[in-house]
Structures are given as structure tokens and as C-alpha cells.
Amino acid sequence: MKPSKFNILSHGKDNPGHILLYNTLHDHRILFDDPDLNPETLFEKIQHGSPLSPKETDAAVDLKEMGILLDDDVDEQKVFEEWYHAKIRERTDIMQVTILPLMACNLACHYCFENAVREKGKMSPEMTDKTIAWIKRRLQKVRPENLNIHFFGGEPLLHTPPIKKIAKELWKFCQDLGVKMHMGMITNGVLLTPELVDELVPCGFEWVKITFDGDKEAHDHKRVFHGGKGTFDIIYNNLCAIAGKLKIAIGGNFDAENYDSMFSLVERLKRSPFADDIIVARFKPIMKVNSVIASQREGGGRLSSFCDVCAFNSKQVDEMFALQKKTLETGLPVQERPDIGPCEYHSRHSMTIGPDGSIYKCPAFVGLRNLMAGDIEHDDYNDQGEKQLMTQKWDHECETCHFLPNCAGGCRMAAVNQTGSLEIKSCDFQYLKEGTEEFMQREIVALSRSSEAYAVDLPSFDSLPT
User: Fold this and answer.
1) Which of 72, 303, 326, 365 has a 20 to 30 A CA-CA distance from 450?
2) pLDDT of 99
3) What confidence score (pLDDT) does residue 340 get?
């Protein structure tokens, strides 16, 4: 036998005798607190062919069933690639569609790369009908258990007719088809009203993602209307008005100018009327893009701020985890574990539809015509779309990395911005390493408190959302 290459071990900081084993492929997390059953000693004995104690022998049987120990002849890279194919790229249990009703925005955030290149088009009634018809055909073909609809932009609430029609028609269609529909929206929150929420909740509207760039003063300097007026009070009061109606994901962007203010923001959020609705709070650095490399792409160097591009330096990693620690201490939920993939880009049945009916594998690609994966006039992806799906995103060096299942080659938008190519990995090892250690320390504390130890088997990585 041999240990899985995806095993990571961490000793508790306050109790080194508590050791957590985390397998990144299967997402097993097992706490060892028996001094006679040390996983490091067990793995060392197995690798050297040394005899095992009765307790170690029993443990080895269980660990083998979980994929933490493997027969010597098992090709684990092949196991990973089969998992990636079946559970990520070709999975059919979830179909995810991100829809952009328009690209325009009612804000002019200072750091937003889109300010100078906003597309003026918005989804027409005819295109709305075609989008609905395309999704229905796809649903009939794939027959997923769940349909996840995400509205994005620009600012999607500037153009609500497509949102309402798509939501209502697809909800009824999914009900008749036996598919569970879940709907969410990434919005700046300025136009989010109780009336709109009440209208859409019966159609599966469950969550919104809202961004605060610090507490009031700092936020009002960065996230402003086109005339320069701040937006904090409007957004905050709108969330107060819908308290109890939706789950809320909080995001935030920081640099040296507003970093300190993020800490007071966390305290304000915990005191807010909607604190119990917050399902995650995650704060990330404002990213700097290499415009020289990015401009080599077809499309004139148009940059995107649609998604959370992940490529951090050491200082930014430290700042993120300091904020995460503050968020946890305050009592708000944080992202469970660090991962930067595999995201929706990797899944055949996840796609983004632009206002003009163009289809992309990533929301950050919308408007980059050379990266267009198809359109709603055709049921299948075009050659570019198939190429994006089928091209391997990691290289040979990645095959020895613990974090390959959490990364799969890294963010594709980051890869384009860093290298000009979709086919080169985007490695963020330091972020994954430090973030995983933080996550494992939290798991050690949680499992220790629950008094459950060896053979704790938490939900499988197979449940990873796209």
C-alpha cells in the first residue's frame, strides 16, 4: 500500500497530539487524537513495509476504503483525471447558467476595469425568449437534478424585465420537468427592493451577493455613482429592508487605502438586522492586471472584473487571512476552505449567456469574442467552446501537488491576464497552502469539541458546486 498524494497532515497549534488528515480529492477530514494511532507513523510504516500494530491494521483497512491509502499499483493521477471527467467536466446533476441582462452599470467604482469599455447593449424581449428556449432545450437534453440560475452584469437590476420573465417561465418549466431550480444574483444592491424580492422568491430566488469596500467612509470613496456620490447607506438600508427574505453573501475589495476599514465593516455587519442572513463574508485584494500581457489578446486588451480572479502576493495572502480571522472572531461565516477551481468554466453544463445571446465558459470572458464558446442560435458549443472544455488546464508539475483537486490549473481569467493564454496554468500555491492550513486548524478545533476523532468522514468533494 501507499498513502494518497492528496493527503495533508496538520498538528493542532494548541494540542500537537491532535492531528488532522485532509484528503483534497475525496474531501475526507479525519481527526486522530489517539497517541497509539499516529497517521505519520502509520504512513511511514506502510512506505517502509514495517509491521503494523492491530490498531494500525484496522485503521489501514478503513483508510483504504476511503482512498487515503492505495494499492501500490494504483495510478492516482488516472484516478484524479477520471474524477475530473465524471464529477466536474461531464457532471449532469447540476446545470448552471449565468445570465447578463445587460453590461451597463449605475456605479463608477474607481478600480473597475470596465468603466472605459462598457457595452451598451441589453437583452431584448426577442433575445430573452430565445434564451429561455435555449435553456429549456438544454434542460430536456441533460435532465439535471438542479438548475442554478445566476443573474450578473453590469448591474442586472438596471434591466429587470428579462430577469422576471426568465425566472417565472423557467420556474414553471422546471416544476413540470421535476428539476429543482435555485436562483441568485450578483448585484451592487442599490436597486434591491423588498417588492422585487417578494416577486421573485416564489420562483426560487434564494441569495444575493453584495459588495462592501470597507465601512461607510471608505466604501463611499470607492463605490460611487457616476456623479461621485457614495452608496453605502443605500445598499446597507436595502439589505436591512429585505432582512429574513434572502441569504446574503458578502464580498469586499481592499487595497492599502481601505484595508483597515474592512475590520470595522465586519463589526457593523455582525450588528446589522441581516446578520443572520449572511452565509459567507469574503474579502479580497483589488487585483492589478498586467496590461501589457493582457493587451496581446484579441479584443484590444479589454479587462474584466466580473469574477474573483485569484493571483495573490504574500502580503495580500496575509491580509486576507487576517481579515478572515477577524470575521470568524466576530461570529460571521467565512469560506470553508480555499479553492480556486474547478469553477463553472470546467463543466460542460455550466455556461454564461451575454445580453446578445453569446455564450461563454466564464463570466469574465463576456465581450471577448475570440473566447466566445457559442450562441443561443445553436445548441452545441462551437470549436472554441469545445477546445476550452477539452484542453488540460494543469501541467506535469501540478501532478505532484496536494492541491490539484482544489485548483485544476487555476483561474482561467488569471491565466489569460498573466500569460495571454488559456492553456497555461495559473498557480497560486502560497494562497492554497496558507489557506488550507488555516482551514485545517479550524477543523481540528471543531472536531475536538465534538469529541469525534478517527474515522470522522465528512461530505465528499463530489458535492463541489460548479
Assistant:
1) 326
2) 98
3) 80
Burial class (CB in 10 A: 0-12, 13-18, 19+), 78: exposed
Please give the model's pTM, rounded to 2 decimal places.
0.90
Read off the pLDDT of residues 328-341 as tens digits, 9 standing for 90 and up.
999 999 998 887 87
Which residue range is the domain that position 348 belongs to?
A: 89-389
Cell triple for 263: 475590520
| Same-domain status, 1 and 135 | no
Domain count across the chain: 2
* End residue of a domain, out of 389, 404, 424: 389
* Contact between residue 10 and residue 39 where contact means Cβ atoms under 8 Å apart: no
Last residue of a domain, one of 389, 417, 445: 389
E strands within 170-309?
Answer: 180-186, 205-211, 247-254, 278-285
Domain presence at residue 106:
yes
Question: In 348-427, at which residue ranges do the beta strands (DSSP E only) sit?
Answer: 350-353, 358-360, 374-375
Q: What does the pLDDT read at residue 367?
A: 86
Domain membership flag for residue 400: no
Quote the distance between the C-alpha of residue 12 and its chain's center: 27
For the chain, percent of residues with pLDDT exceeding 90: 80
Are 112 and 130 a contacting pair, CB within 8 Å? Answer: no
DSSP reduced 3-state for 349: coil
Comparing 312 with 379, which gets the higher pLDDT?
A: 379
